[in-house]
Amino acid sequence: MRAVFKYKTLYFMMFPILAYFLIFSFYPLARGLVISFQDYRLIGDRPFIGFDNYGSVLKDPAFWDVSRNTLVIGGGIFVINFILPLILALSLNEVASVWFKKMTQMIVYLPHLFSWVVVGGMWILLLSPDTGIVNQIIQLFGGQSVSFLSSDRYARTVMILTSGWKEMGYTCILYLAAIVNINPSLYEAASMDGASRWQKVRYVTLPMLKSTMKVVIMLNILGILRMFDQIFVMSNGAIANKVDVIMMYTYQKGILEFSIGPATAAGFLVIMATFMLTYATRAVIRYDEG
Length: 290
What we know:
Mean pLDDT: 88
Radius of gyration: 24 Å
Helix content: over 70%
Number of strands: 0
Strand content: under 5%
Order of helices and strands: HHHHHHHHHHHHHHH
Largest sheet: none
């Protein structure tokens, strides 16, 4: 008890944070779990129906279609968001000009600060088949205009690349922060052994980035199944069958069709799948070993 009174100020400061999570995170989560087992109605009785909502979702062919889209697009984003920022960070680390390095960091980081409403709208304009600058460049070199956002052939690729473009700067900063903390004596020792620049990157920089790589992998894994904003902004009827993801399915069920029970059940399936995917990834990459 003496320890409790000794740190009462610290506990008092923690109380608002704890209250925030209890009210806005844990209570809605618990309430949603209850709703997923109910025949939910806005007015009237809400009888418990067991796992019927989960069964209806798992038997719905549309759910498996959006699940496949989610894994394909999410997997592509995972690879892009791991490799491109690493290449960019390693490249910037080799730049001698400090002002150029800082300017580049600022430019590539800016898209991360904007919402998908802004970024998605911008890319819709850039990829427009009539006035978009991308198609104007293609036509300048004698090519034909391409309908990037109304073609099944390009839809997923566009979603993957635009997501990678938006988040590349944020992940790059994580890598650069880790590179700065590498002991310079390791590079000096490598130089004394006659190591080339590439050998220093391969045998010094990359091994020292192992812990940061694990963090980046875990952050990307957590977001694979939770994509929504980008798809909601950039999708349209012509490509919906190729890019609609699980969270779009829950939006359609819960908001447009007002099938709250199945929508909540689909949401909890995403939570369970994310938990299992995260747990498996932690085991594979040995996250806790540093």
